[in-house]
Design a protein that fits this description.
It is built from 1 helix and 8 strands. It has one helix at about 1-25, and strands at about 55, 60-65, 70-75, 80-90, 95-100, 105-115, 115-120, 140-145. Strands 1-2-3-4-5-6-7-8 form an 8-stranded antiparallel beta barrel. A hairpin with a 2-residue loop joins strand 4 and strand 5. The longest helix is centred in the N-terminal third of the chain and has 25 residues, at about 1-25. The termini are far apart.
Length: about 140
């Protein structure tokens, strides 16, 4: 009987030591986050992902397709503009750049969120650092559902 108790004690001790060692090796280890490979699309040559879609506001309709092409129309533009779009990083700001096939049709938007864009000047990106004021700020486009 003592022999069985001895074997049981050895087994339980071994399991406890093994469990403590595994726990100690994992404490402080960085957690592994699952990789999200969903179909958010950015324009060509962009390393930053941004979902394509349709945005509207301020008499502008912007359509971004999955292949990096866009269409911009509405009363704020003389005639519909077409070209390519890219997402880029400028310091703390994420920007959506529309490059037109014709001259004079290039536009720049600050990405406020995946659903909100704001037209910006390249040299005045500081407007993206303050809270958005929908009643005062111009050039705000929101994603249409």
């Amino acid at each position: 009987m003592n022999f069985r108790l001895f074997i049981k004690t050895i087994c339980l001790s071994s399991i406890g030591i093994f469990g403590s060692q595994v726990f100690a090796e994992n404490v402080g280890a960085p957690s592994v986050q699952p990789v999200n490979n969903t179909a958010t699309t950015a324009g060509p040559k962009a390393g930053i992902m941004f979902p394509a879609g349709t945005f509207g506001g301020d008499d502008i309709l912007l359509i971004l397709d999955n292949r990096g092409k866009y269409s911009l129309s509405g009363g704020a533009v003389e005639k519909p503009v077409h070209g390519t779009w890219t997402i880029e990083k400028n310091g703390r700001h994420t920007l959506l750049r529309l490059s037109s096939r014709s001259q004079g049709g290039n536009w720049l938007f600050g990405v406020r969120s995946k659903d909100t864009l704001q037209a910006v000047d390249e040299d005045k990106l500081n407007v993206l650092e303050r809270p958005l004021n929908a009643t005062e700020d111009a050039g705000i486009l929101t994603r249409e559902k």
